[in-house]
Amino acid sequence: MTTKYILCGLICLLFSCLISPFVLSICKKLRASQSILHWVDKHAQKEGTPTMGGIIFLIVLIFSSLFLTGKNAFVEWFAIATTFAYGLLGFLDDFLKVKFRHNAGLRPYQKIFGQVGIGLIVGFYLYFSGRTSLTFFSLNFDIGWFVVPFSLLVLVATTNSVNLTDGLDGLAGGVSFVYILFFGLILALTQENHSLAILCFGMCGAILGYLGLNCFPAKIFMGDTGSLALGGFIGVVGVLSGLELYIPLMGVMFVLSALSDIIQVLHFKRTHKRVFLMAPLHHHFEQKGVHENRIVTIYIIVTTAVCLAVLMGVLAV
Hints:
Blueprint: H1 2-29, H2 55-64, H3 74-100, H4 108-128, E1 133-136, E2 139-142, H5 147-165, H6 171-190, H7 195-214, H8 223-241, H9 247-250, H10 252-271, H11 281-287, H12 292-316
Antiparallel strand pairs: 1-2
Helix pairs in contact: 1-2, 1-7, 2-3, 2-7, 2-8, 3-4, 3-8, 4-5, 5-8, 5-10, 6-7, 6-8, 6-12
């Protein structure tokens, strides 16, 4: 089985490397470029960089399904469909930004409405299929009907956290790669159904191929198409496996991105003063003069260390 994981990851990496230049070329021809917010002055030179690179993840995710085994692969296809649904929501946001040449896109309530709608579908599926148990190291408990609002919270929080982390070249992609790799290892080592783990390794290959074009200086951005798809993938694989309680631990840098943004907004509304020079947190470090490559490296190192600790804890149980 180990061979299948490695083979899936490597072939998906190759496939991602092959299609990435074509996606970049199409985005350039369609002038699907990113508009940079005027207050992010350090990114002014990135104006016009092609976006919607997240399409690469979605194409390769479908390709990775060829490695699924077993007659009943509904759960895995449900995970793929959910990822596509969040990716489509992000694509609509990117499309509006490109069409009208501004950074507004969908209105916040439209995004939330879409995220909640998809999350409710996932939650009701979990409840009616009896997937209501949660596992956290040696703890295992059934939450019954509460799985609906809980999974909704997980999906909305995860998609928005990954979306907020997507602010520097290679940041969201690099952190997501490490997270998904270790989560795939946990699934492979602890669960009987290894198909979700196969999807994780396939997604890792997709991300690595994309990072070849997204590392500093980025030739293409993932856009909301990619960040919402990645967040949706991380969230849905977590809830389908019953291991969603690991998400805030292993995805600690996603959590910090979201928390820093929430703290900044709430504190500014109350005092009209800022806690950070700019939120999310990675922009604060950037304003402090830290080069984005160093920030990305630190985020990846911290994520790797935490994920490794969680993996060792899981294996020790």
